[in-house]
Amino acid sequence: MEDSWKKIGLREELEQRGLLKQFSNEAFFDIYDKGGQTLYIWMDPSADSLTIGNFAMFMTALQFMKRGNKLIFIIGGETGMIWDPGGKDAERNLLSAEVLEKNIASIDKQVAFLLMNIKELSGIDCKYEIKNNHDFYKDMSFGDFLRKVGKYITVNTMIKKETVAKRIEDPDKSISFTEFAYTLIQGYDFVRLYEDYGCKLQICGSDQRGNGVTGLELIGKILGKTDAFVMTSPLILDSNGKKFGKSEGNAVWLSEEKNSVYTAYQFFMNVPDEDVSRFLKIYSLLDSMQIQEIQEKHNQHPEHRTGQKELAYRVCQIIFGTKSADQAKKVSEFMFADNKLELLQQSTSEEKKAICREVGEFTYSEKASLLDALVESGLCESRGDAKKLINQCAISVDGKTISDIGFELDPSNLLIQKWKKSMRIIS
Question: Lowest-confidence range among 91-105, 237-251, 352-366?
Fold first, then answer.
């Protein structure tokens, strides 16, 4: 990544990239533009992987880290046992300590991998720490918490928070005391981070602003300090106006174990033309001039989907690494190409394995009949179904339509197709 970002201020870059929505005091822009400060973001440990939604906040934090500031990732081991009522119509199931511990360890590795990829791609060596907020509370009794924290925030203030008010005002919904008290815990996290690590800035999604403001209030009342800040970023929404996330059912995971790299690649390949530039600003390492050049090239021939290809590849590079991004690109080219056989023949063994993971494969055996292959590979439900499709000229092998029901495969065959979109690689 070029160092052109050094020519503009932190605030300007956040605004250019569409990462800034609200802030408590503009003084923090100059302070953090100079570097040498500490900030934090909060990660939800309800699963063993982060999502594209978390990644947007991660990339927001990167704008601070690349200026020499240190980031603390707070993984909510304590708050993860309660959950935030914000944006939810009902209370979520609580996870066991064992599951949370497993999730936290997995997220820890994922964050380290992301930052390693960023260093390889950009040369930026980011400073960070990962903390579990359970450590702030493990030696604190309930009585201690009420005395140290509870007495400083009034119920009047808490019930006015939008996330709580929605659940209280709707007669068909409710909120438990557990979730009601959530904002106190997240607010006290900020107190401990300020006190123990000199952390004076929380950045969060706009739906978390209320919790951030509670932290500022507690820092003022408990520590007597007024030099802490909260900045929020806009929520990243899908085409239906839904927030990207696990509970919304539209999550794209930053884990190859939960979805393939190709799945993530195709997610970005399918964004509307009008979102390409916006998502490049949020999710890529490119500067504004580079993004403008891509947009201009895309506008010349939108049907070539140049912008989507750049977006998908560059995001997957950061999340999964260059090698995996290259494989996802190859799979995407294969899936939509007319010359599939030629691409298969040119593919490396690793690329072929990646293609097989997406389309499926059939293991060749001596004198394997096409009918058996169609059924065993799952392309057809029965031999009768297979015969019918062959008679309809719907089956091809290596790009050649097969009309012979008795056709037998040979070791040189690579690809069976049903119509155009259903296929199996022969291995």
Answer: 237-251
Mean pLDDT for the chain overall: 89
> What average pLDDT does this structure show over 388-404?
96
Euclidean distance between the first and the last CA atom of the chain, given in angstroms as a whole number: 40
Q: What is the pTM of this model?
A: 0.88
- Is the Cβ–Cβ distance between 54 and 60 less than 8 Å? no
Distances (CA, A) of 54 to 128, 247, 387, 420: 16, 13, 49, 36
Q: What is the CA radius of gyration of the chain?
A: 26
pLDDT in tens, 131-177: 999 899 999 998 999 999 999 988 888 888 777 777 787 777 777 78
Nearest Cα to Cα of residue 272 among 243, 242, 305, 227? 305
The CA distance from 29 to 364, in Å, is 62
Axis-axis angle for helices 261-269, 306-320 (nearest 10)? 150
Distance in angstroms (rounded) separating the CA atoms of residues 3 and 58: 20
Adjacent-strand bridge partners of 232 = 22, 204
pLDDT tens track for 17-40: 999 999 999 999 999 999 999 999
